[in-house]
Fold each of these.
Amino acid sequence: MQDETAFLRDVARRLQAISDAKRLQPQIEGALNQLAELQRLVGERGYAAHGASGFLREAADANARLQQFAEALAAAERIIRETAYCLPMLTYQGGETDGDGG
Amino acid sequence: MGTGDELRDRLWRERLVTALRVQLPVELDEAETLAELVLLHGLPPGQDEAPVRSALWRSTGATPEWVEQVMRIIQSVRDGIRLPVPEPDSAQRPALPERQPDEQVPPAINTYAPPEKHSDQELIMTLVLERMRAVNHFQQLAPKVQGAQTNLRTLRIAVSGEADDSVRLPHLLAEWLEARRAWEAENQVLQSAQATLRATEWLIPFLQGPLASR
């Protein structure tokens, strides 16, 4: 018998991490798209052009958000890996018993 | 819809099916049909219950009392209340009452106790714990039950090979009966563990997560 409290705590951490990872992946994609769009706009106008500094500031902000999302995703993935030991127990299917009492 | 929403909806459905099975009581397929009816008419926790009441009324042709009973169960599941489970001898389901033509749908009456809130997280953990205990039971009991089955089969062969007037026959039969009682007790727990494993299988995809295939 495993230590139920510790096991359940890890299952709860795992569920939270899975939820975080699923939430973060589209946010990261969104931030990447935003960055790509800002880079394109800056590239079109040229770095020295009027208005480019505003895009660059936005790009810096988007980059900072991306960093935060990426760090949070890495933390969630680390927890998911750490708690992978829970899976065999949770996915155990039992087996067929023939129910024949002889 | 996010993972949390999916999990919450699934949890709500499972709890509703279980509550309907136990509280009404009805068979699994009937409980599932009722739960689908409830969900089809949009009763995730916290939403308006009038369409569900009306759908139950129209679809089942049951009496207002029966509809109210189902609504109380739905509300208890939604609010996390545990209603008393019927005694075993009253667990036989009465025939579905017929609605009288002149009966009207009664207004909603809140006669139940204030809700005792449980978070989704607590409920999921309760199910995980049930599954974990079922796994432990299964792992401990499966070899025992298998051994007992082999023993029973051996005894049965021995019994059938004895002549009716054999001195050993009563002894072998008594031994078989004793072995059968032991097998029954352990097999019952094993079957219950197996039922829990099946009933909580739906949790697995949520627990595996996005890294499962890596």
Amino acid sequence: MNALLETTALTRHFPLRLPGGLFGRPGLLRAVDGVSFALPAGKTLGLVGESGCGKSTTARLVLGLMAPTSGAVRFEGEPVPARRGPAWRALRRRMQMVYQDPMSALDRRLPVVTQVAEPLLVFGQGSAPERLERARDLMASVGLTPHLFERYPHELSGGQRQRVVLARALILQPSLLVCDEPISALDVSIQAQVINLLHDVQARFGVAFLFISHDLKVVRQVSDEVAVMYLGRIVEQGGPDDLFHRPAHPYTQALVSAIPSPWRRDGMRRIVLEGDPPSPTDVPDGCAFHPRCAQAMAVCRERRPELAQIGGGRRAACHLLTPVAADTTQATPC
Amino acid sequence: MTARLLDAAHARAQGSEGVVPTGEAVVPRGEAVAARTASLLARAQPLVSIQGLKVAFDDGRRLVPVLHGIDLQIDRGETVGIVGESGCGKSVTWLAVLGLLGTRAKVEGRVLLEGRPIHDLSGDALAPIRGKRIAMIFQDPVSSLNPVQRIGRQLIESISLHRGLGAQAARAQAVRLLDRVHIPSAANRLDAYPHELSGGMNQRVMIAMALAGEPDMLVADEPTTALDATIQAQILDLLREIRRDSGMALALISHDLGVIAEICDRVTVMYAGRMVEQAPAHQLFDRPRHPYTRGLLAAMPDHIGPRRPLVAIAGSVPEPGRLPAGCSFAPRCTAVEPDCSVATPRAVSVGTNHQVACLRARDA
């Protein structure tokens, strides 16, 4: 498989002190605990899960902003260096990040057009007039009108700011955009504008998205493939329509049934999980989901299920599901 | 049918300027019938009635109007959803009702609680109503709780305030309340600090505190917005259960139409400080009439059925104080016509309990 971005058994643990004793006791926070996925060029992989499931840490690992404890990230066929240096900087030109809050991602004291042109300056591309020219072109193509170019971030609306951030991320012509909750801070009517813009941008520039969100409806709307994370691991992965209409893993089932919708029909069963997700400093043995799972069996407490093909291009990590024999290159151990 | 009765009762209550006595014990024989009618009226009139509520904020130079005359009635035990985007005034409405807006806000209009006006009460006179009759919970439970006090102490404080119980009885009541909101091992949790509990647990504590005064109505301002999907489902379940058991009315403020659809009987849609549509929940979602409501529903992705392209509403919400002339939504509306920017449309009835403030409402 020729993937633009590939992670293999990506792991990041944070040592920390937990309460207890005079100086606390040592603990280990397993933020990301063996995540493998592949993202083809020009496609969108949606990463969903609740807070603390490790989706944002995965984003930081992918971009090389943080070194993994173990495992590897390959981008355009090359390993992403864990240390910042010339090689990392050259790679970072090809992969960019879009954050949740555009206001804090922008400099309040610079006109937005200067900020969109800035990455070109950083990488020493073109002369000053050329850089501004390219910035203006790109800003126009993400739907910003010329009278907004010289404004400051506080003079723009939330949706316009997010367009500025997108233009800035796109100006170096990256092949991957990592979007961490890019529309969660926006109003409902503006969210749709930005979702449609992301579709446009992908069609026009052929850029791939790693799209991270807690909002399952948005993830289904934008993704070609969806991976559901729970406590640092992918528990289920598949095509968006298939995964949401026929969730296989009990956690995905609960997650999907919890989505509030005005179009929900009375016949649809709702599964309300008990309790909170466990802390990533104290991941249960066996399947991490078993204390909240209504269908947990003895084996779930003892042995951790591996992510395996369950047919129809779906992968899931659950003892209830029977893996199907798949060709070995696809079945990436997780 | 019931609605029309209520309206009639309400109109009469208004006429008598809200002097309807409730629970009068000794009644002269000749007036028994009148008194019975009066107590029936008290029961039949809306629990809370907001009439022509206007709010403007003084920004130092001028008054910026943010609410332009809100009319809303909530009956006993009813769940009303108030939906709209940020800045539409959905929270300000309820902060104004409870007198929580501070000195920079200029509030006009009438608010009646069981027919008795409460809009002209000053801070101290409102105190017995806040929390005791109408309680409110907010989006972020952690910033509503005192971080350096154990939750038991905070809970007991509101119990002794509203119920006047002694220390022992208040503590026992606190445990019962935590039990009621399904916090496991409630007695032990009284000694926990807010940071030791998760977001969902803290919101349960807030709900328990709101229940301490056994209010007639709970105003929940985005109660699940800061929570994860599975925890949101738990909290919505809890609110539904409490409402069923206690018969408390609930005003749920949210930007999420999905959350509103989960538990509301009736929905009010707000835009730029005005109500644009009001209808029973299922009717609003199946047959929205205002172009803004239609726009919101078309702009919302969903997980049910096939994926469809989203239809975004062009432009953005106007700033308060810089509203366009006529209908505030006109510049973004796809069905706009020249007369839309002449006058602000008044709410018209388009069906049973269904009102729309749009000039085109009757055409559709």
Amino acid sequence: MEIIELKQGKVSTFKLQGRLDSNTSQSFEKRLLDAISDGIKNVIIDFKDLDYISSAGLRVILKATKTLKREDGKIMLCSMQDYVKEVFEIAGFDSFLPIVPTMDDALKAF
Amino acid sequence: MNTSNTFSFELRNHLSELTNLGEKLESVGSALGLSRRCLFEINLALDELFTNIISYGFQDQSEHFIRVSISTDCNVLTVVLEDDGIAFNPVDRIPPELPCTLDECKVGGLGIHLVKNLMDEVAYQRRAHTNVLTLKKTIEKT
């Protein structure tokens, strides 16, 4: 999996490419939590080029969301393929995670 | 690997085999003309079960193989997963209560919850020293 990190003003975007599973979730978790401990408070995860996610990927998103909440930060998830969004729905995560259709929608939240 | 719409392969008990699983399923998916969504759902269910098996199933350090057999009958796809790990029936596990808020959210049992939702049927059998999981799903073609 490729992770491209981009800073736009006060917002950090993590663009995911490929597959987020038990194999790749640890490196993503480290990137994300390192950025948060470096003081990043506003995070967008761009799912546009993510082809695959498993429960290991959901755990990372959940952990980052909880960590950001403690730091008074905020996370937005955008541009999911419909079958990726379905996994968040089946898990019940869509009730408390902000999932929006486009990057523009995500940027507007900050 | 293919005789009249039956596919089978083996995976070693190592997380890196998830990549191999994904590639094998890609080729099964194109042979059967499965839709992207359908292929994704099958991959996710097998990923969760495989990850469970290799995380909890083996108490020794030796190499084990998990056998995957996929067949179709009309529009029903059947996947059989077999491993020689300790007896473990994921089907009986109590489903997690789905979280309503971030603070309530715990992730135990989430993988099995996904499997049960993505597949039409999940059945477990212990045969001699083998765990046999049989999954069924009505397939959508492209």
